[in-house]
Amino acid sequence: MASRTALLAIVFAAGLGLAACGHPSAGSSSTTAAPAARLEALNRLDARVAGVAWRLAQANADLCPVTRLRAGWTLQSASQYGGDLRPLAEARHGLDGDLPGILAAPPGSPAAQAGLAPGDLILAVNGRPLSRGDGARESYDGLDANAAVLDAAAADGPVRLRVRRDGAEREVAVQPVAACAYPAQVEVTGTLRSHADGRHIFISDGMVEIAADDDQLAFVLAHELSHAVLEHRTRPDVTGPRGAANVAITLRRGLSLRAEADADHLGLYLLARAGFDPWRGVEFLTRYEQAAPGARFAQVNAGGVYESAPARRRTLQPVLTEIAARKADGRPLIP
């Protein structure tokens, strides 16, 4: 993965974009934002996505084909930054080399409940020191390696962390909970795109920015989570218990010409189960069409037929009615 310095250079230059699951989109505009403003904007996007994605992952653990014990945090490290952003990130977040720092601890997550917050730097887990690395080059590799150690520890249950905040160290106990095994990540590309690869859910900074509120952001993230739930793309190394209610889903599993439509359908259920407003969520398609004129037309991609934004809105109206009826009758929100 490219460093965030390189990716930010793309954003604040003039990149052409792709839209969610393959639609063409408008390009981003150029800007000369100061480094501090760029870092603040990136951190804000990360925190926003982390909060919505965590609610979806935890609320729908029973529907996911793979679950894991997760703390809910989003991590970062100094080594993922370069150029003029690195010293700013180190000063603002107390980062040091490859050591993982808390970028976001969503409300209600085990990380937040343990008192973790942005600015905390994780030094050790269950008595095992994490690697600082040499700190000499821009890379995600060191952070990924430390995150893998944290994930392995969390898979066994409660973890003890040694954490530094403002120069003072303390012990923190975190009790991970079951959640869908697909963390979300912001891609800084200046495009309009979201996708899922069987391991992660990716959403571009441009897609986040056009979502007017968390309900609309949840629409995009829930669509991509649905691809994972319906096993449109799987990875052999993504393992864990299957959600208890996963077998109750009646929508087709595996890739088909209806994969994108089914992801829209199930996505509304997933966001409703997480407490988001599906009626408001669908309004994302209106904003998306305004930002990406190509979304007015149907296309075909590797995932199947992708309807135009107006057709998607029409197709989802009966699903909204169905969800409202299930809620009124007290029936499970499982299509």
Give an overview in words.
This protein is an alpha+beta fold and 335 residues long. Helix content is 39%, strand content 16%. A hairpin with a 2-residue loop joins strand 12 and strand 13. The radius of gyration is 20 Å and the shape is globular. Residues 5-20 and 22-31 have low confidence and may be disordered.
Give a concise summary.
The chain is an alpha+beta fold and about 325 residues long.
Write the SSE topology.
Elements: H1 4-11, H2 35-59, E1 67-70, E2 74-76, H3 85-93, E3 101-104, H4 110-113, E4 121-125, E5 128-129, H5 141-154, E6 159-165, E7 168-174, E8 177-180, E9 184-187, E10 194-196, E11 201-204, H6 205-210, H7 214-229, H8 259-273, H9 278-282, H10 284-291, E12 299-301, E13 304-306, H11 309-329
Parallel strand pairs: 9-11
Antiparallel strand pairs: 1-8, 2-3, 4-5, 4-6, 6-7, 10-11, 12-13
What's the N-to-C terminus distance? 36 Å
Q: What's the helical proportion of residues?
A: 25-40%
Low-confidence stretches: 5-20, 22-31
Pairing-aware structural class of the strands and helices? alpha+beta
What overall geometry do the principal axes of the alpha carbons give? globular
Beta-strand content bin: 15-25%
Q: What's the arrangement of strands in the largest beta sheet? A: 5-4-6-7
Mean pLDDT: 89
| Oligomeric state of the chains present here | single chain
**Count of helix runs:** 11
Order of helices and strands: HHEEHEHEEHEEEEEEHHHHHEEH
Number of strands: 13
| Largest sheet entry | 4 strands, antiparallel
Radius of gyration: 20 Å
